[in-house]
Amino acid sequence: MHQHLLSYRRRRYLRLSLGLLVASLLIYFSQAPTLPRNGGSWQGYTLGGVATAMILWLAWLGLRKRSYRSSLGTVQGWTSAHVWLGLSVLPIAALHGAFQFGWNVHTLAFVLLTAVVLSGIYGMFAYLTLPQRLVRVHGDQSRADWLTELNAIDARLRELAVDADARTQAIVESAVDRTSLGGGVLAQWFGFDRSRVLDPAAAGQGSRLLGNRGQQRLIDFLAARIPLAEQRGEVAMLQELLALAGRRRRVLDTLRKGVRLNARIKLWLVLHIPLTLGLLSALTVHILVVFLYW
Amino acid sequence: MVAAAEIYEIAIIGSGPAGLSAAARAAEIDQRAGGGSAPSHLLLEAHSEFAKTIHRYQKGKFVMDEPGFLDLRSPLRFRAGLREAILDHWRRDIEAKHIHLRYQAEVVAVSGQRGDFVLRLKDGAELHARQVVLAIGLEGNPQKMGVPGEDCGLVQYQLDDPAAYRNEVIMVVGAGDSAIENAIALARQNAVIIVNRRDEFSRAKAGNLNAILAAINSKSVDLQCYYASSVKSIKPAGADGMGCVHLSTPEAVKPIRCHRLIARLGGVPPRRFVESCGVVFPSARPDALPQLSPRYESNVPGLYIVGSLAGYPLIKQAMNQGQDVVDYIHGVAVEPVDHALLALQFAALPYAAGVDDILALYQQRIPMFRRMNTLAFRELVIESRVLMSTPDAEAQASAQAKSEQAVKRRAEAQRTRQRAQLAQLKAAGEALTDADAAPPPAPKATSVLRQEDFLFRSGEYSNTFFTIVEGEVTIISEDGSKRFVLGPGQFFGEMSLISGRPRRGSAQIGAETILIETPRRSMLKLLNSNDEVRAGIDWVFIVRALQQHFAPGLPMAALREIAQRVTTRSYATGEQIYHEGETGDCLHLIRSGTVALFRQTAKVEVAVGHVHSGQIFGQLALMGDPLRRETTRAAVPVETIALKGPEFLALLKKDPQRIAVLQQNTTVQLEQISQLASQPEGGHLVSFLMHQGLGEATNAIIIDESLCVGCDNCERACAETHGGRSRLDRKAGASYASVHVPISCRHCEQPHCMKDCPVDAIHRAPSGEVFIDHSCIGCGNCQSNCPYSAIRMAYDAPAKPGLLSWLLLGLGAGPGEDPHGVPDQAAKAKGKKAVKCDACMDLPGGPACVRACPTGAAVRIGPEQFSELIARR
Fold first, then answer.
1. pLDDT given for residue B4 in this prediction
2. Which site in A108, A157, B32, B266 is 20 to 30 Å from B259, CA atoms measured?
């Protein structure tokens, strides 16, 4: 049955990770006190070798995840191990270099490793918390269900607006047309709402294109328009428009939150993976350089 | 006085396929004897054309030559083709073979016996014959509906010209070939509703089966089907020309308005005429057929009956029989054409007896098959597998060699025959079809096992039915603690056949044992074909169910009387079985399906449990608490055996040891109920899962949405391990309380997809996976039968570059199904085929979807894990 990523198999990879860390510390402190500790001792090489092997194995997840016929463990097991071992690789790498940092390619590799691990930590946080929030936001409906509802509301709004006066019709239709949802990376990440509305009567005050964040301007307009109704049946129609606009705001809000959460669940990989590739390059250079100047 | 001179050796009444073939054989014999003299035979036809029934088929109808495994043996030509071509061949053959055929000669009376029959015709003429062959068929005498209002003018039993009806709503009742053909022809210019009493079209020929299901599935054909439905009453047409038919469907009684109702329920023997000839029928049932000797002779010596009146409803069978009966009359001992197939089935058996003797012996020895018509039994054996056990490897090898040799001989004979046929067709200048050149069906011979081999093991999904002919079979209970020995005449395996659940217990073949293993489809055909046989078998099944659940130690005979007093009940999906608060007087043993239990709380009804086939519920009513404390409803179609107090007590008295087991099972059930009742959220979740069809699932994927990150690696894994086509749609499907049931196969207990697969391409692996093999023809029946939309029709996906090419060079679309991939020529030529989840039965690690989930959100479960799922929330 369902098992948490971190607690997979009674946290066996946490235990492995802690074991590795303890062993690394022992190796580190076994360096002779006569010389300053560094990566050039046999202990340093050992720790460097372990860290390199770990980094390569951690990066291998990208391939294992796509080796769909593989029966070498499950992807969940690999991911659990990836998380726990990934957390310990940073201290092990630091022990390997004996905390000697400088403006050089060696430290670049360490900085990249840190960036990879930090993005990974964010990813873990996202994986562990955001899906639940997404469930709360979407309720028992899927995104497709919410989009279907939005389409139905839009169709009904247009249908009603045909019978309204010209300004109301223009505002309602433009509010529907100029609703923005999602967008670029930043818009998704922060959930910007760049919806606009076109008010033909607003000509005098500069642009006729006004902001409609949270559909607020549409709602304000309709609420203000209702008391001014003159014809019979107009109020009923405007009331329905208002009710629909209110529901539409709620639907859009849900969808926008969904987009934002989805972006946060997925977009960190856009950093994590290129950084990993960068790290692998820097690591290669680091190793080559070390052996060239031996 | 002219008539007195008319004396024939053989008079054949009826010029359908059987009569024509018989007359052609008789004419051949006349010709051989020297064609000059007067013919010794006479073929009498009541109408002005031969083969009236086939003439009445609609124009351009494709006539089939089922069953495929049977050879044709007749002087007349016949192969699958257009009605016109077949009639044309026969017309020419009547000429060429000098068949002595008299039209407009309806026989109204036959008297006398062998050597001197007197046949009186409608016009008063009389003629004499030494032997009479009755080949009048059943078509002239349709089976009536027998419901109120059937005489109100809305109902007709015959359809001569489907084109005569336009823009009408027409209901066709029946599931046989004629009902299907009528429905399809009418649907071209009418709205047609076809009503099938059962839930599949198991009686129809394969070709018709295909056609009707294609028509039901097609959006462009206005044809709707009601399964498991029957007409309750009929109201006459009103001013608009439409009457109203009350149809009892699994959901409710529905009034359906239509212009006419065409009932095609098959024919019944024209009993009065046949009886007037002195022929005796074995029972009073309207569909009873006269009893015949193996040579088709009735109880009146010299009076032979062939064709559908003899129980051979198919054209090829009837033609074969027509030739054979004339040979018999002439004292030529020929074996019936299916003899060779039966001989193969018995090839390795240690008998000296002939096929007919073996068959007679078997039928006599097995009570269940005794009621069957001999011909139906022959067919059943041909479709089954005959198994035998051998004491050691040496005996096994020698028996196997015998069996293989027989197969080789048969295959060789088939090939020779086919070559001759092709040469004949070529000589006649006829165009050859693919069917003519297709390889003949592979012959099937005795299967040889070693004694103590397992026929099946506990937990295995198989649904064949075994009958013991000789020797013994040991059944080992699920936990291995108990062993029962079954002997000749007994059978086993019916539980899985009925319920679709895995085997509960293992079966081991004994020494010197012979078994008949019948596939599920043939068993269903048998059960559907004859109510009498069905009732008989059903009753034996009930005895067995009682024995297994309440008194395993007792012989079946001891339970017979009790079995007669219990009732079987069927419930449609959603139907209530009993209601909370009422007083109960019976318990239910589930034969098939799943039942959901509910309790009413202050506000809503909450699911508190579910029981599936092989389990009992409601037993507390008989254990001191008559008040029902739950409402029970069928989650899927359910069949139960209801047991009342006296029978229950009688059973317990017979085997007091069972009380403890029963009490223990009840305690487990009560614990589950109380757990769910105390956790109404869990109950709601169970209701949701039941609603999603997980009640009948054996292995379904569910996703915990609070863990799912939406990476779609599950879908990609599915596509990558299944030729580039995913069988899982993660985003689609319903969710409740963060449990998501995606669109994917549930591997149902009784797979809906399996019924009506014309090529039998859908199978269940012993480990439970339901899969489609390469013989799929892409008809789409399974797709439309699946209530969960888990099957789709797809082309083979185009090939993609490897993973590294994509990762490093950006070539191709990457892992998963390529949404923009265009099928190549080969894929298009092959056509769309049905694809569905096979639970990765070929992958050593198990389902790829679950193994590819990085967060552990996807799991596969069956109903037995519902409580675990709830306990973990």
1. 46
2. B266
Cα atoms found within 13 Å of the Cα of residue B361, Cβ hemisphere only: 14
Structure tokens at B769: 């996976």
Identify whether residues B525 and B605 lie together within a single domain.
Answer: no
Q: What is the 3-state secondary structure (H, E, C) of B815-830?
A: CCCCCCCCCCHHHHHH
pLDDT band at residue A215 using 50, 70 and 90 as cut-offs: very high
- How does pLDDT run across A240-268, given as a tens digit for each residue? 999 999 999 999 999 999 999 999 999 99
**Can you spell out the DSSP letters for B277-316?**
TT---SSS-TT------TTSB-SSTTEEE-GGGGT--SHH
Taking alpha carbons only, the member of A108, A79, A89, A99 closest to residue A50 is: A89
- Tell me, what CATH number does B117's domain have? 3.50.50.60
Residue B105 is part of which domain span?
3-140+269-329
Tell me the pLDDT tens digit for each residue of B602-632: 778 888 888 888 889 999 999 889 999 999 9
- Å from B803 to nearest chain A CA? 8
The reply to whether residue A2 touches residue B859, judged by beta carbons under 8 angstroms, is yes
Determine the longest span between alpha carbons in chain B, in angstroms: 103
B307 Ramachandran zone, left/alpha/beta (phi>0; psi -120 to 50): left
Q: How far is A217 from A199, CA to CA, in rounded Å? A: 10
Q: b or e along B606-638 (b: 16 or more beta carbons within 10 Å of the residue's beta carbon)?
A: bbbbbbbbbebbbbbbbeeeeebbbbbbbbbbb
In 3D space, the residue among B546, B610, B541, B539 whose CA is nearest the CA of residue B577 turns out to be B610
Q: Does A3 touch chain B (CB under 8 A)?
A: yes
Q: State mean pLDDT over B93-107.
A: 92
Q: Which helix (H) or strand (E) holds B155?
A: strand B155-156
In eight-state DSSP terms, residue B145 is -
Same domain, B844 and B711: yes
Domain co-membership, B745 together with B618: no
pTM strictly above 0.80: no
- Min distance A120 CA to chain B CA atoms (Å): 14
B727's CB contacts (< 8 A; 6+ apart) are: B718, B744, B745, B790, B792, B835, B836, B837, B838
- Total count of domains within chain B: 5
Do A66 and B868 lie within an 8 Å CB cutoff? Answer: no
In a domain, B390, yes or no: yes
Compute the distance between CA of residue A127 and CA of residue B706 in angstroms, rounded to an integer.
9
> Which residues of chain B neighbour A67 with C-beta distances below 8 Å?
803
Q: Which two tokens stand for residue A206?
A: 């500069």
Find, among B246, B261, B244, B258, the residue nearest to B182 by Cα. Answer: B261
- Residues across chain B: 873
Q: What is the ipTM of this complex?
A: 0.93
Find the farthest-apart pair of alpha carbons in chain A and give their distance in angstroms, rounded: 98
Same domain as B176, residue B47:
no
* Half-sphere exposure for A32 (CA within 13 Å, toward CB): 5
Residues 6+ positions from A60 with CB-CB distance below 8 Å: none
